[in-house]
Amino acid sequence: MPPTKRKRKAPPSKPRPRSLSRLDFRSPADGAWYGARVTVQRGALRVMYEEFLEELDEWYDPAALAAAASARGGGGAAAVAALRARFRVASPPLDDARCRDLRAGAPLCVSCPLDGNLLKFYDAVLESVSPAAHYRDAGGEERCGCRFMVRWTEGPRAGSREEVGVERVCCVQPTPVQDPVLDEFFDGVTKLLGDGGGGATASREIGGGVPTDAPPGFQRKFGARAE
């Protein structure tokens, strides 16, 4: 699970494989959204949180997802759909000059201050905008003074309302995720489900033991299988 406070990573000894695109990923640990990149490595999907330690990467084994179909009669397909739904196109911050483009009902991802000076992002819906004058900062950039009434749909404040400033708002994009790494992984899992293999022959790199040079997060999750 990711830590609750962002930390800058130490420079890795060698480049980490990753997809070209930055995605949003909803953590299973706290339900918050984080920036992440993905790769398929040693037979598993590796989700790499941006600005977090490498040890906190998430790993997903295609064999486990496929095996769920045999164990629960289609549960594997549901597990694949649930994992796919955790990814979406990155949500950009609301541009100060574009606040007038927002309409009631717009899906947003808003920063949520928590105890201990923690800041996490959860989904919300825009209910209304209280217009205010814009101004220019010292560098000549336009700044928005409007206030946005949002209703939280996720996180510890789900169901409640809050008025926030532009600096806390990101805009959820309707564009579907098109990432070659995710496509490769999910296509492989779908093939396993279609073949009825139940995961018995999947992820042989994992089942054959964990190499000593495997990433720390991989060791933590799959080390019990090592020979």
UniProtKB/TrEMBL annotation:
InterPro entries tied to this protein: SAWADEE_dom
Biased composition (Basic residues): 1-19
Biased composition (Gly residues): 197-210
Region (Disordered): 1-24, 197-227
Organism: Urochloa decumbens
Pfam families linked to this entry: SAWADEE (PF16719)
Protein's name according to its UniProt entry: SAWADEE domain-containing protein
Residues in SAWADEE domain copies: 21-170
